[in-house]
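INTERNAL AUDIT FORM
Audit reference: QA-55
Scope: verify that the stored structure record matches its stored sequence.
Auditor: D.O.
Record contents follow.
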Amino acid sequence: MIIGLVGYYGYDGSWFSTFIKCDKNSIFTISVVEAIYNDVLIIGILGGAVMITCSKEKLEDELTGKVRLNSLLLALYANTIIIVIATLTTYDLLYLNVMLWNLFTLPILFLIIYELSLWKLNKTVNDEEQNKGGTSGE
């Protein structure tokens, strides 16, 4: 698989010739520009996702930290289920593509679950404040 990935990311036969023997007409060959573009894109998306997931909220407290931890745990469980299902249902190069996309599922799932959890928490707090404010005036 590693040999396939090295070939997929632009093996042109010049500087890998002592390590890997690969046919230039292989299905794994793409241009060097495309390989660099793919690498920059993947690193950029993952780097941006890490920056977003690790950034602090305006009001960061213990409850927010607990919500963040629970969201990460839920995202990890969901990602594991996705990997198991993909392993049981996909094969060959499609499996390689699924695993490539799987690089992005954990941070994306975490962001979705975390933002939904924060939204529900803020909605609950706002509803309680409105109910508390409405009953105290009577």
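Auditor finding: record pair retrieved intact. The chain has four helices and no strands.
Action required: none
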